[in-house]
Amino acid sequence: MKQRVVGRLAVAATAAVVASLGLTACGGDDSGGSAAAGSSSEGGSSAPSVANVINGPLGDQGFFDDAARGMAEIEKAGSKIQNIQSDANNPAQWKSNLESVSNGDWDLVITGTSQMVDILTETAPKYPDQKYVIYDSVVDAPNVASIVYKQNEGSYLAGVLAAQATTNTQAFPLSGGSKKVGLVGGMDIPVINDFVEGFKKGVETVDPSIQVLVSYVGDFTDSNKGFDQATAMYKQGADVVFQVAGGAGIGVLKAAEESNKYAIGVDSNQNSLHQGHILASMLKNIGVSLEAAVKEFGSGDLKFGETTEYGLANDGVSLTFADNGDIVPQDVQDQIKDYAKKVVDGEIKVPTAL
Amino acid sequence: MNALEQIFTAGTLFVVLAKVAPLLLAALGGAFTQQGNILNIGLEGMMLVGAFASISVGSAFDSALVGVLAAVLAGLALAVVYALGTLWLKADFIVVGIGVNLLAAGLTVFLLQVMYGNPGVTPPTASITLPRISLGPLADVPVLGTAFDDQTALVWLALLCVPLSSLVLYRTRFGVHLRAVGEDAAAADAAGIRVTRVKVQSILISGVLCGAAGAQLAMATLGSFTADMTSGRGFIAVAALTFGLARPVRTMVAAFVFGAADAVADQLGIAGFNSNLALMTPYVITILALVVAGIQFRRIRSASASVTPAPQTA
Question: In a 3-state reduction of DSSP, which class is residue A144?
Fold first, then answer.
């Protein structure tokens, strides 16, 4: 329904735009086909062929790139694979791309994000013999296996780190010991609040008297507003701000440098963006989960119609310190590892907003 | 109480000024076209290409000045597209405005991908910021010193553009012609004013000012471009100039109302107010301001109508 409205708007806007969109859509499919032939390794008989339908272009240094990294690993394991990119704002194209690989040529079709839920919900029953995997969202259908990530667990570790930084001024020289930390979120929505819940719990575990400031940019693009909100937090004494705001978060990281304080990145390794100010980055390891899913599919263990959770226990989420200029001492990193282990063992329950 | 104290400090005034500058530049640009009876929705897109050009070209030449010039040229280029679409091809002003915005959003992301291999943000290697102007001993002046010390040249330029725009609109031949065209294009044409040329000039001015606005947005503090970073500021600028009835000083007042509301909203959110209410604040104020402006505008119109009843042509 939604795609149809969008489509009609596009038609109404300009025929030329629609024509060019159509062309790119077809072009994408064509090149897709030829690339598939080129990259197909036709490995062992057991390795399943896998198509990854992406509802946007690669190069986001986050979500989709990580999925593609997983696909590359899957290819190395002997599978024939294909990544199908598309326009980021063209649901009609996503749908046609998904349908074009649903006719049985591929053993498994992967797609992801909440934006694909409606499309897959519509498409999956039409091709009951086609098997699908959707990541970072859930689609309830007998031929779809859903993968979700426990961002609250990764965020918990970020909270532990932030709390350490605001209390331990010895190890973190830019910290003022104010016992204040902050989180700048993109929007006040469940998936972001799942980060908030985990972060607050992590801070509380270390020291319940630490104050957590939370604000929302209102979108994921306004980097100036991200900068302003983070700067306001630093002015109020916050030593560390965790950004969960996509592109707007770029402003948060910059604010850490301007205010000479600390920040924590998200989605991709942002540790080297402002050297000396970004303690760590919290990652959702999409690729790892896709590799695991394909492996399970190959051995017949992947359960369709069910949802698998990827958290700290199975490397679905993690906190990386790589390339941060060694500003987090090893003993603090070890402590965080201990906390991670407690979460994995079920000793610590991280609350969720989902 | 504590929250209120944190909101109303001289430091907040500094933030408001920095927030207002791009809004004011864009709104003044829109005021020029509005005076010529063109509601320029394309301010957003012109700002966005300006922001991108300032970072990409400025960092390539390692010069903030070159960055600002590139931003102005980029804004100007998009203004040319807008003028061609509306005045030459006679398409609807709103539709072309939307088209210009979509073009800017797509083009900047495309160029990000081609130039830096990343459609989201410019890399740290391509970073450039505007120099800040220190007031020296004047910085110790209470309140105003803190607010104006260390602002960028574009903040000063934005403020300077207010009297400058008034001067151009009300004291020059071009300004008189533009306003005559805006009042009644047919009458202006009959009086020998070259209507299209005057309109094109007003659109080009809006492109230049929006380009500068984009430069301030990207280069003032961030020093980087992120996709769609204007995030609706162009539309807030349209609201500001509408509230200001396209008069420079009133438009500036409106821009300050929105800038201040935005700064207050940030503080309210952090102070723990409901985030949705906090984020709504600038827009609620926008709507209220538009209603007030609408009532005033009607009063002015009815007043002028009662003084000089519109003569009917025979």
Answer: strand
